[in-house]
Structures are given as structure tokens and as C-alpha cells.
Design brief:
Length: 293
């Protein structure tokens, strides 16, 4: 540690060193640190230094303010709580593993990328291109604004997440989305092995080209959903303000609402109360419609 810091040893079991009430603006201010607890500190100032916590291990960050770039790269064992990462704090978490963040604002672009074993709770995220190429991510009670959310990521578990932003969950694999509100467009394109349960999904062109995706007790709205899908399942879902549904899709669906129109579903069975229009102008469309009104 640098000599000018006033430090104390806390948590005697882990011998964690406390750094409290400091301001850092130099390049790589705490580079390579181990077993530290950073509390009530600000990473901001005229030196405009980057990469404050690069290559660190076993770090706890509490009630801190980040206004500089790239603070957490190549870190292992990181806990962040009650902190703010501003819109100037771009690319905050990259190439890191075993990270927990709670009650924290992540407001910089590309805030999470190529990380693994991540848990986010009660976080407010405003970050375009958030969560690219990440693995084993859990999110609970978080709000998210940003485009291209979770691109090409896998093993995701999201509960009570509120998302607003286009092009979300593209190319994701092995994911569970539960009790979420997704206000999005072109979501879940090319997704594989995903369960969306008890969610509200609003937006155009939902889940084209997906494979083995299940919507369970969901409320879905938006034009031209669920086209060119393989192994698609809908279990007791509402499909409202939706037209030209299921084009070229392999689908097994039980729907609870009237559907405006269905176009050329490839195969399977669609059970629903009523449908406004069924378009069959493709000879390869053989899916069966069962009206259960």
C-alpha cells in the first residue's frame, strides 16, 4: 500500500485492510491490491487516471463514487455495495470473476463484459452494450436501460428485472428469466435453451430464429413475434396486439387470448380461443390450429 494512506486492519479473520475517506485520481491507484476494504472513497479528479483496481484480489468496495474509466479489470473476488459508477465511468467491469454488486448504480457504457460468476442485486443500470460475452450471471430486482443487453452470454438467471432497451438477449444460451418486465425490440434473436416464466414481454419481432425457447405464463405483445423458431413452446400465455405470428416456426402453444393473425406456422399445434386471420400461402405450413373458445 502507498504510504500516504491511513489504514487500519479490520475483519481479523481475513486480515482485510481498510482504506476510508480518500480521493484517488491517479493512474492505477490501487493496482494489484489484495484483501482491502475501500469505504467512502471517491475515484475522481484532475489527473483523470484509469484502471484504479486493475489486477486486484479479494476486494470489498462500500459507499464509493467512481467517475473515471475502467476501474475493475482482471479482478477476482470483488464485492461492491452502495456505490455509484457515473456515465463517465465507462467499461467498468471487464475480464473479472466472482463479483457481487448490490444497491449500486452502474451508469457507464459497456459496464459489464467478458466476466464470469457475477451476482447483481437491487442495482440501477443505465448502460448500452451491457453484459456482452458474460457467463453465469444472476440478477435480482434490478432495473436496466440500454441496447444490446446480454449479447452472446450464457447461463443467466434473472428475477424481477425491469428492462427497457432494444436488441436484448441476442444469441444467449441457457437462461431463465422469471417475473421480469421486458420492454424491448428484437429480443431473444438466435437464443437457445431459454425459459421465460411469468414475464411481461413488450416489443416487436420477438425471438426470431430461436431454438428450444419456452414462454410459460407470459404476457406478450408486439407485431410479428416468434418467427422462424425451432422447438418453440408457449404455455398458457397471453398474446395481445400481435399479428403475423409464428411464421415458419415449429411451435407447441396454448394461448389464453384472441390473436390478431397467424401466418404460415411450419409445424406443431396452436390452441387458442380465437384468431382474426389465418394466412396460409406457403405449402410447407402444416401446423394445426385448435380453437378452444
Amino acid at each position: 500500500m502507498k504510504g500516504r494512506f491511513a489504514v487500519n486492519v479490520v475483519n481479523t479473520e481475513n486480515k482485510r485492510t481498510l482504506i476510508a475517506g480518500e480521493r484517488f485520481d491517479e493512474e492505477r491507484a490501487l493496482y494489484g491490491s489484495r484483501d482491502i476494504h475501500v469505504k467512502d472513497c471517491a475515484f475522481d479528479g484532475p489527473a483523470d487516471g484509469e484502471s484504479a483496481f486493475k489486477e486486484c484480489r479479494d476486494v470489498k468496495v462500500e459507499n464509493c463514487y467512481f467517475n473515471l474509466r475502467y476501474p475493475f479489470w482482471h479482478d477476482q473476488g470483488l464485492v461492491i455495495s452502495g456505490s455509484e459508477l457515473t456515465e463517465l465511468c465507462r467499461a467498468a467491469l471487464w475480464y473479472s470473476a466472482d463479483v457481487e454488486a448490490a444497491d449500486t448504480k452502474l451508469h457507464g457504457i459497456k459496464a459489464l463484459r467478458e466476466c464470469s460468476r457475477i451476482r447483481l442485486r437491487d442495482c440501477a443500470i443505465i448502460s448500452p452494450e451491457f453484459g456482452w460475452f458474460v457467463h453465469q450471471v444472476e440478477m435480482e430486482r434490478c432495473s436496466v436501460q440500454g441496447e444490446y443487453f446480454m449479447l452472446r452470454s450464457d447461463h443467466l438467471t434473472l428475477r424481477e428485472v425491469h428492462l427497457k432497451g432494444k436488441y436484448s438477449f441476442q444469441y444467449v444460451e441457457n437462461a431463465l428469466l422469471e417475473n421480469c418486465v421486458l420492454d424491448t425490440k428484437d429480443a431473444l434473436w438466435h437464443a437457445k435453451n431459454v425459459v421465460v416464466r411469468n414475464c411481461e414481454v413488450k416489443g416487436e419481432y420477438l425471438a426470431w430464429y430461436c431454438e428450444n425457447v419456452t414462454f410459460d405464463h407470459c404476457r406478450i405483445s408486439g407485431t410479428q413475434p416468434l418467427c422462424y423458431c425451432k422447438g418453440l413452446k408457449l404455455i398458457d400465455c397471453d398474446l395481445t396486439e400481435a399479428d403475423l405470428c409464428f411464421e415458419k416456426s415449429e411451435v407447441e402453444a396454448t394461448l389464453r387470448t384472441h390473436v390478431d393473425s397467424i401466418k404460415n406456422p411450419l409445424s406443431g399445434t396452436i390452441a387458442l380461443p380465437s384468431v382474426g386471420e389465418v394466412i396460409r400461402d406457403d405449402p410447407s405450413s402444416h401446423a394445426q390450429l385448435l380453437l378452444n373458445a
